[in-house]
Write a structure and sequence with these properties.
Elements (H helix, E strand, L loop, with lengths): L26 E6 L7 E6 L16 E4 L15 E5 L3 E6 L9 E4 L3 E15 L2 E5 L3 E5 L4 E17 L35 E2 L5 E9 L2 E7 L16 E4 L19 E5 L2 E6 L16 E2 L5 E10 L10 E5 L9 H6 L9 E9 L4 E2 L1 H5 L18
Parallel strand pairs: 1-17, 6-12
Antiparallel strand pairs: 1-2, 3-19, 4-5, 4-21, 5-10, 6-10, 7-8, 7-9, 7-10, 9-14, 11-12, 12-13, 15-16, 16-20, 18-19, 18-20
């Protein structure tokens, strides 16, 4: 059966081009489906949809200060503290005070993406050692055995995904869009030099802790299990630094966050926001438009810089905007966006969008900025 084209309507006071030259006295809201890929309409309101006086009930924008979780008295795996989760993904932070692990780890439940907020070191893996530094994404396929050897105390943002992590389709942008494949680093095979742990019999042993269905099993060897001397194929550990990403931009009109997609997995997308020039067309909206993104929960981790669309947010914080309630630029950011002297963004952030609703953990509740949803109290009344 052929799908009939969706009719397109234009009613009342609107613009010729979305996000550009808004009707006088109005703000723009995008009401869309399927995470900016489905049917969509722009609504032109005389007051911002975030201009609520109060909210009663659990559905509200949230913010967490992950630095308040503190440094854990453990290694990089044991220090993981989950803040949000559903059946497709678990979002955790890890700040271990034991930089080097004395065992190997294998996640049999999930692919992993580690984002290095702070710190540097080496990840020893089946495929060989891979160095990492601040701003790196490190992608670890399910079933890979690895050990982290970090310097000092790292701060890691961790995504564990039930589905396979993949790179986005560039489509008409071409194969070199977003990031060139040469920006990706993969390891050369090199057996691990880890000497193991001396057992009760005086001999060295090497432990592999395997996570399966949320439980850990320890498997011991009398030899170092990272003994690969060669590998070939299209499945491997790899890394990409967030500052190597080339953002897709338009000088005329603000583009949806989906153009900043970095990784995809089952029912989720991970996007990266890096410094970019702002729109230069007179009357162009420069900050994200108001939206409720009704089919996806939206999570933002703030890594570095001046967070253009948010006021009162610092590096190391997470904001969580669940499906069904509006969000958009904070009032001061909205006002500042119309300043012609403002020509660039200076923010680095990681976004996760999930099709299925996320649940907050007790750790998230313990670090929550309780009044975050009230930070829109002076939401703008029409374009400035």
């Amino acid at each position: 059966m052929r799908t009939q084209p969706t009719p397109y309507y234009n009613k009342g006071r609107t613009t010729r081009q979305s996000h550009l030259l808004l009707p006088e006295g109005c703000v723009e809201e995008e009401h869309g489906r399927d995470g900016f890929f489905g049917p969509v309409s722009q609504l032109y309101r005389t007051q911002a949809p975030t201009g609520w006086s109060r909210i009663d009930g659990p559905l509200k924008p949230r913010a967490f200060d992950c630095d308040r979780l503190g440094v854990a008295e453990s290694d990089a795996i044991s220090a993981r503290t989950s803040v949000l989760f559903n059946n497709d993904v678990t979002v955790s932070v890890s700040q271990p005070n034991t930089p080097s692990m004395d065992y190997f780890f294998r996640n049999a439940d999930a692919d992993e993406v580690l984002f290095v907020h702070r710190g540097e070191g080496v990840l020893e893996t089946d495929y060989g050692p891979l160095s990492f530094r601040q701003g790196d994404y490190v992608v670890i396929p399910r079933g890979t055995t690895y050990r982290m050897v970090a310097e000092q105390t790292p701060f890691l943002l961790v995504f564990e995904t039930a589905g396979r992590i993949q790179q986005p389709d560039r489509g008409m942008l071409g194969a070199h869009a977003l990031y060139d494949q040469t920006a990706i680093d993969t390891p050369e095979p090199e057996p691990s030099s880890f000497k193991g742990v001396i057992g009760s019999d005086g001999n060295a042993e090497w432990e592999v802790r395997i996570k399966r269905q949320g439980q850990l099993t320890s498997v011991w060897y009398l030899f170092n299990p990272l003994n690969v001397v060669g590998w070939k194929g299209d499945l491997t550990v790899y890394k990409l630094n967030i500052l190597d990403i080339c953002p897709v931009i338009s000088h005329k009109a603000h583009l949806p966050p989906s153009v900043h997609s970095t990784f995809l997995a089952q029912n989720l997308v991970i996007c990266s926001f890096v410094p970019r020039p702002l729109e230069t067309e007179p009357g162009a909206l420069k900050v994200p438009f108001y939206h409720s993104n009704i089919d996806f929960d939206e999570v933002l981790f703030y890594h570095d810089g001046d967070f253009f669309s948010r006021d009162g947010i610092d590096a190391g914080m997470i904001t969580f905007h669940p499906q069904g309630i509006h969000h958009g630029p904070h009032p001061e950011a909205y006002k500042a966006s119309w300043d012609p002297a403002k020509t660039w963004t200076n923010e680095v952030a990681v976004m996760l969008d999930t099709r299925n609703p996320l649940t907050m953990t007790e750790a998230a509740h313990s670090t929550e900025w309780k009044e975050y949803h009230q930070s829109w109290a002076s939401a703008p009344k029409g374009a400035l």
